[in-house]
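User: Working on a comparison across species. This one is Leucine-rich repeat-containing protein 45 from Biomphalaria pfeifferi. Can you predict its structure so I can line it up against the others?
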Amino acid sequence: MMESFRHIYVRLCKDHHIDPQDCVLEKLKSLEVGSKSKAVLDLSTNSLTPKTCCVLGKALASDRTFVEIKFADCMMAEDAIKGLAQGLAYNTFCKKLDLKGNNIHAAGTEAIGKMLRQNKSLVSLCLEWNGMGMLDNSFAVFCEGLGSNTVLRALDLRNNQISHDSVSELAAALKRNVHLRALDLRWNNCGLLGGRALLEMLQSNKTISRLELAGNNVPTDISKSIETAVQNNADRQVIIDENLKRTQTMSQHIRELEQDKKLQVNELLTSLDNQQEIHRKSQRFSTEKIGNLQLALEERKGAFNSLAAKLSMAETELALSEQKVNEYNSSLNRLKVEMQELAANHVTEMRKEKEDRANEELKYLKEISETQDKNMQLQNKVEDLERKCRQQQEQIYDLKEQVTHLQSELTMKGSQYEERITQEKLRQKEAMRDFEQYKQKEMIHMKQESEDMEKILRDRISKLESQRLDMEEEISRLKSTNVSDKLNAEEQLQTLRHRLKSEEEQRHVQLEEKIRVLQTSRDELQSLTNQQVATISQLQHKNSNLQMEVDNLRRQMEELNQELAQKNNYTMAEVGKVKAELNKLQNKLDQERSVQSEMREKLATVDSQMSEQMLKHRRQMEEKEKEVVLLEEKLKGRELELVRLREEEAQRVQVLQSAILNYVGKQGTSSR
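Assistant: Here's the predicted structure for Leucine-rich repeat-containing protein 45 from Biomphalaria pfeifferi:
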């Protein structure tokens, strides 16, 4: 077989004026040298030209040698994929095909879809590491071919860049395909919409018993529901297989019984035929003897007187023959009576069987009525469960409204805090303006008096220098206190930032893991966190402005110290005034810091309240989700019980039909 395939390949290459590739010939020769039972054509990791692939496709179209064909990691062109697909569309022997890592997209995807529409033998198809989902139109053609296929059982589509639109096309095709058992969609881009489409498909498709969706960004709740649906399909398939096995065993048992009954009837018929043949032979023998005797009597009538003794002997022989005839007639009569008794017994047995079957039919009808009553009760229970589900959904909507109400309250509180901050800014600006005006007036007055007092102040420079040193020490001390306050404020801001970031990250992770269905509420919470970050940035901006003001005040202090070196006691009084003003400013700064701390504490309390409310809502949602999952499991169990009851009723009907057919067949044989 391998040698014939190689000759076909070489002949087709000559017909198309192509040189056969060495890698293909070496592989075919190695298969010929190896075990003949191995029917696997493995051309993986070989660079095959499009013409070679077209020739291989034509050779494989009528091939009945290879059960499995592998073209993995060959990186074939679109023309090569088309040639192989056109040939494999008419192959009726290959069961497994591996096209992994061949960069299949566009025209290659359409060719594979057309091949699936025509092929009637492929059971497993591997298309891993390709780009079939890059173009939606070509993937739609592939899905149409998959929907019309009735043989394929396993399909591998890992790493094919399949989007949610393509997944919806695939789900629509799988609604029509009720033969596929395993589907691998790992590492694609299904997303939320694709997961919903697959979940909707699984509600109608009950044959897929294995579905892989890792790495598709599918929400956890949808993936869990898909897993439960697939598990239900697997359980249903196991039940169907067991029922098929049972029906097969029952049909075999019924066939064996029919064969045994046929053999018994044939044995009875053969015994009757043998008895009839014996009776016919005895009749023929007696008739022949009677004829011979009559001939002898006719011949010996003339010599009756002379042969009286012989006549008496003949009479005795006739008497003996008549006795034998009587014996034969009595035996025939006995056989007839026995046949009549057998027929009567058979008729009575048939009547008993009819009565038993009528009783069984009545029992089956009663059981059917009971099952119908049970079905009505189950339907009522299902309606009650649906009402409970609706009530729970209404409770969920109420909880959502409460969440929105709380979020609106938070936004109102944030706006109130912002208004307070703007009022405080305006107050600080007005105070700074008044201080600058007063400073300008004092500077003008000081310049006028300094010109008059320059002569008197020269004598007191030495005293003022000592006082200047003391003032510098006090100023350095004030600077150190300001720097320490600044560092403490920065550390508090950093701790607040880290805490807020950590809390936001925790909230984000928890929301991503548990409340993906409530995406709208998550967006609103993110907007609230952004507002909080904005308020924090505003506070930071305020702190920077205050630091700038402190720096300006420091510069003013340095200028005043320089002027103190040239001025007298009046300047000392002015320095005292400046110190008082600085103390006032520091008091204002302390007040602003206290206000900021109060704002931070309020923000912390609001955050804690929000976290507690979110935890309560999450717990309530988790409890409701658990209740919904339990109700769904109960509904699925009831559906499985209904399916099982229907299948048992169908099996009982089939058994009744087979019994009635056997009964009719027995009546026909008995009438014959």
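For your comparison, note: Strands lie at 40-42, 68-70, 96-98, 124-126, 154-156, 182-184, 210-212.

User: Helpful, thanks.
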